[in-house]
Amino acid sequence: MKQNANDGIRVILAGGASGGHLYPALSIAERLKRKRPDAEILFIGAKKEIGAGIVERNGYATRYVDVRGFNRKNPLKNFSAIRDLVLSSSRIRSIFADFKPDVVVGTGGYVCGPVIREAKREGIATFIHEQNVVPGLANKLAERYADTVFVAFDESVKYFRDPRKIVVTGNPVRRAFVTGGLSHHRERLGVAPEDMALLIFGGSNGADRINEVVSDMLIDMKGESGIAAFFITGARMYETIKEKLSEAGVSDDGRIRVIEYSETIHEYFFASDLVVARSGALTVSEIAICGRASILIPSPNVTGNHQYFNAKILGDRGAAILMDERDFTPKSLRDAVFGLNANREALNKMGEAARALGRPDAAGIICDRILERCGK
User: Fold this and answer.
1) Which domains does the chain have, with CATH numbers?
2) What is the pLDDT of residues 316-351, one digit of tens each?
3) What is the DSSP string of 253-309?
4) pLDDT for 142-164, tens place per residue?
5) Do residues 60 and 41 lie in contact, with contact meaning Cβ atoms separated by under 8 Å?
6) Which element (helix H / strand E) includes 322?
7) Which of 125, 193, 332, 333 is deepest in the core (most CB within 10 A)?
8) Residue 150 to residue 165: CA distance in whole angstroms
């Protein structure tokens, strides 16, 4: 730690490549730079995986470490992962020696553990942030090395060993999700005032089941009025879905817009009345911040079924309809969508219930704690 409180703070942010780990870290970095423009920030990620250039496009330097996740189904395949984990310590020490951080913040993912552990060994202030209701293995293991554990939900506290370390903050979301509602995105994107607009997406890579069901529903409701849709498919399925809809006579005509990927997804949130999505932690938090009703289809292919518990936060408050993927069909989705379109009062109440769960200043709370810990 620097002796002069006027010196710039130096912060390392370590997290996985998925948006759920990466965007909270970017939100923390953004808020830190607003609070302390002299702050120097460095991201550490798993080699060749940190956000596909997203960090660099946001103006931050990155360093890479050779680590990977463990194969829980076949432990015999973990020898190379263990080797990389052991060798990563010297690489992390070299990064620390070069950058000289005052604080290290981990936001989950398998790169987080070794970085936080090494920071603790060197006496550097350490923090972790857990986005999901049920914490991931990396953050559970990293807890012992962290000075403070930030969590997004009250329900997460019981999953950690030392409640004295826990601070409930919410999930840091990009500033655009907090201020974006001030802009008239609905009008700018051409949504008719009388239409109910849907925002549909399955995560940054898309979700096959959501893409399949939604495209079938859009084909089924071809020619009907009253519904507009922003359908974000992900790059992998974009051309296939476009071709499928085109062959069925569903054109990308302004009411039904098929989108490959968006780094400004907040614009579609604010232009929409109803969100249809998976229930990753960041998605749930963004829905709450924007105050939108939602239909959530938790992924069955995640550790500990954690997306179900994320979705349940909104569902239990009457803010979302939860659908098991096995029950998620074009008919069940159509019935839910048209039911809410016919009952705008219920739709609005769901949005209000979601907004009541939003924590718009999560990044600010985290940054205040970091600066306080570092005497800044």
Assistant:
1) 10-172+360-373 (3.40.50.2000), 177-356 (3.40.50.2000)
2) 999 999 999 999 999 999 999 999 999 999 999 999
3) -SSEEEES--TTHHHHHHH-SEEEE---HHHHHHHHHHT-EEEE---SSSGGGHHHH
4) 999 999 999 999 999 999 999 99
5) yes
6) strand 320-322
7) 333
8) 8
Helix (H) or strand (E) holding 352, with range, is helix 344-356
Q: Are strands 103-106 and 10-14 parallel, antiparallel or unpaired?
A: parallel
Amino acid, single-letter form, for residue 13: L
Sheet harboring 274-277: ordered strands across?
256-259, 227-232, 196-201, 274-277, 293-296, 320-322
H helix or E strand, kind and range, residue 104: strand 103-106
What six digits make up the tokens of 210?
């959501």
- Look up residue 50 and give its amino acid: I
Residue 317, judged by CB atoms within 10 A of its CB (0-12, 13-18, 19+), counts as middle
Residue 227, both tokens: 């519904």
Cβ neighbours of residue 212 closer than 8 Å, sequence gap 6 or more: none
- For 100, 197, 227, 231, the CA distances from 254, given in Å and listed in that order, are 51, 11, 11, 11
In this structure, what token pair is assigned to residue 22? 């990466």
Q: The whole model's pTM is what?
A: 0.88
| Chain segment 7-17, per-residue pLDDT in tens | 689 999 998 76
Residue 108 pLDDT: 87
Residue ranges in the chain whose pLDDT is less than 50: 1-5, 50
User: Among 70, 110, 72, which residue's Cα sits nearest to residue 88?
Assistant: 110
